[in-house]
Design goal:
5-stranded parallel beta sheet; alpha/beta; 2 domains; 15 helices; 7% strand; Rossmann fold; Zinc Finger, Delta Prime, domain 3; 334 residues
């Protein structure tokens, strides 16, 4: 049985899969403004309120999101040229705070949705905290975050947390097949996003495969030859300025390193996630397995640490990748 959403003024949906969290938040928003009383996700095309929420046209539903996710109602605001498309701008959060106290147009209450609040600009948290400390009685707030651990404690203390567990990879594959993807493509997509079918269905599979293949090539060159040039190539692939993209690339590299160890000892490939590159993974698996597993663990640790304020993301990724080279390899080139 699905756990009931907390009936609280402010609810934070957290877990893997940003699109899955978005759909849940919008379903709850529709429930808030639906005058027919439809339960979340149960509205049909005959319900004008539910239909308008799905289309992003309901006047009592306000949604704030980074530019790359902004598809529905947002209050007017002046966006700084320095704002990144993957970040929730300070000006937008302030506009939401100023607009949230307005009375609803049609429904008994308004619904305010803030997507990816873990990507909020640091200066915006004070504006967000101000509205969350005393939320308007005529509004409910729904926030989403895939990385709730990086939110300030002052924000976390004022929300009711609803955590969504990750889906097993087999369940993600099954959900993709139900959407019409072939078994091979469903498995390929689930290899990149094993915990959530929404993100797996939406990803650019060709671009992600290209990135994976380049990471695998660079990692193979580094671990099999200890070539500084391959170390530089891997560093360049990982050195993204965007924290979330850099973390995803580190996570993908960690998976490939673990796959390589599995491929080296399992000819049937039962424990290999990226089976379509089995031969190349098995070749990488010829490197020292302990070294590969240690590097995989270190990649996941760095992916978490990048959320901290002390890191220059690009420099941290570059330094980490070059640190994978054997010490004697670097000494021989000094």
């Amino acid at each position: 049985m699905t756990e009931r959403i907390p009936d609280a003024p402010v609810v934070l949906f957290a877990g893997p899969g940003s699109r899955r969290l978005e759909l849940l938040a919008l379903a709850e928003a529709a429930h808030v403004v639906c005058r027919a009383g439809h339960l979340p996700g149960a509205g049909d095309d005959d319900c004008p309120d539910c239909r308008r929420v799905r289309r992003g046209e309901h006047p009592d539903v306000m949604v704030a999101a980074p530019e790359s996710r902004r598809r529905v109602h947002t209050p007017p605001f002046e966006e700084s040229s320095a704002s990144k498309e993957t970040t929730l701008p300070t000006a937008l959060v302030r506009a939401v705070a100023a607009d949230a106290s307005r009375l609803p147009y049609e429904s008994r209450r308004r619904a305010v949705v803030l997507l990816d609040v873990d990507r909020t600009e640091p200066a915006a948290f004070s504006a967000l905290l101000k509205i969350l400390e005393e939320p308007p009685s005529k509004a409910r707030f729904f926030l989403t975050a895939t990385r709730p651990r990086i939110l300030p404690p002052t924000i976390l203390s004022r929300v009711a947390l609803h955590a969504l567990p990750a889906l097993p990879r087999a369940a993600t594959c099954a959900a993709l097949r139900e959407r019409g993807f072939s078994p091979d493509e469903a498995e390929a997509r689930a290899a990149f996003f094993p915990a959530d079918a929404e993100d797996a269905a939406a990803l650019d599979l060709g671009a992600r495969r290209t990135l994976r293949d380049r990471l695998l090539e660079a990692a193979s060159g580094l671990f099999l030859t200890d070539s500084v040039s391959w170390g530089l190539a891997l560093a360049a692939l990982l050195a993204e300025e965007d924290v979330e993209e850099a973390s995803e690339r580190l996570g993908l590299l960690a998976m490939l390193l673990r796959d390589a160890v599995a491929a080296a000892v399992d000819p049937a490939g039962h424990g290999v996630v990226h089976r379509e590159r089995f031969a190349d993974l098995a070749r990488l698996g010829e490197a020292d397995s302990r070294r590969l597993l240690d590097a995989a663990e270190a990649a996941l640790t760095l992916a978490v640490d990048l959320d901290g304020p002390r890191f220059n993301v690009r420099l941290a990724c570059e330094a980490w990748a070059l640190g994978l080279l054997a010490t004697d390899s670097l000494a021989g080139r000094a």
